[in-house]
């Protein structure tokens, strides 16, 4: 069974198999770290079954991840959740991985920040 876990700083060194894809936007290390520091409850990783923790593929590798934020603090603007990045390794696409990550982001946004995710 796959494991959903919070995205942590050390995961930045394990997500190349997911990120090295022409469909995936890649950001700077500082960008990822600022999100993890500011909205730690809105970033998650799905890992394949098995041990290890390497890149993608078998043995506990990263299947995909989602990074979000809560925004809208300005007066007159409704607060809402925002999907900053969601991506799934090519070998795990069309299996519902992104759908599960989105559901988790929606639940966490509502529970922790009392906001709805806007798509």
TrEMBL record:
Protein name (Swiss-Prot/TrEMBL): N-acetyltransferase domain-containing protein
Domain N-acetyltransferase per the UniProt entry, residue ranges: 2-119
Single GO term (MF): protein-N-terminal amino-acid acetyltransferase activity
Phylogenetic lineage: Eukaryota, Fungi, Dikarya, Basidiomycota, Ustilaginomycotina
GO cellular component, one term: NatB complex
Sorted UniProt keywords: Acyltransferase, Transferase
InterPro entries in UniProt: Acyl_CoA_acyltransferase, GNAT_dom, NatB_acetyltransferase_subunit
The keyword Transferase is assigned to this record: yes
Any Pfam family hit: Acetyltransf_1
PROSITE patterns assigned: GNAT
